[in-house]
Amino acid sequence: MVSMKFPTEKMSSESSFLFFRFMNNRAPSNKRYQPTEYEHAANCATHALWIIPSIVGGILLYLLSDDHWEEISAWLYGAGLSSLFIISTVFHTISWKKSHLRSVENCFHMCDRMVIYFFIAASYTPWLTLRDLGPWAANMRWVVWVMASGGTAYVFFFHERFKAVELICYVAMGVFPALVILSMADRSGLCELLVGGGCYVLGIVFFKSDGIVPFAHAIWHLFVAMGAGIHYYAIWKYLYTPVNQPTSTAR
């Protein structure tokens, strides 16, 4: 008996093929996802595009600084922002083109995970340093860097072992320091901070969707870039433009 394929079935199979050619199967919980060639290229491009803007942005804040504390905050924030995009791009490039250098690739994968903690701490630094804070909240200026150091140590000893714990650590560090908002007399920029934070949170959905959504990691990169851009705008507008420069107790 001759089997017949209806046009709808043929179209469905073709669309499925086109859908899955852009991604590999989902990796087991104890292994790292291996992107396709298309995904590798997208992973590199979506963060490489922001390297130069992040460096220029950090320099701009430094040039706008009026005192020592603003210069330190600009330097730390600019370094954290540009390092995030640089290390991510280097790791994804090595992972794509130099897969035989497993030890080097693994080292940069660890650095890629570690720099996220320092990026979060650097993103909070201008707000914690240049805004007036209550007595208890002022301690958060150094607590965020202790948390970043702890996260780095965690990656060093438990890299890729407990992925859920690692994700919880990122979210906790991203959310917990925001409690200082409760002690701020000047809350200008809060809307931008919430929108930028929302971009990161929404991006986490794609961060955990490799093997489910094509280009999931590259989409995560785009959400990171959007969140970082919105937060940079808030820092520039509310902390470094002359009409909005605050008087900080840290000065």
Automatic annotation (TrEMBL):
For this record, the Gene Ontology CC terms, alphabetical, are: endomembrane system; membrane
Summarize where Zn(2+) binds, as residue positions.
Answer: 92, 217, 221
What domain of life? Eukaryota
Q: How does it sit in the membrane?
A: Multi-pass membrane protein
Q: What is its main location?
A: membrane
Q: So where does this one cross the membrane?
A: 41-63, 75-94, 114-130, 142-158, 165-184, 190-207, 219-236
Q: Name one Pfam family in it.
A: HlyIII
As for subcellular location, the record says: Endomembrane system
Which GO terms label this protein's molecular function in UniProt? metal ion binding; pore-forming activity
Protein name from the UniProt record: Monocyte to macrophage differentiation factor 2-like isoform X1
Species in which this protein is naturally found: Carassius auratus
Q: What's the encoding gene here? A: LOC113044565
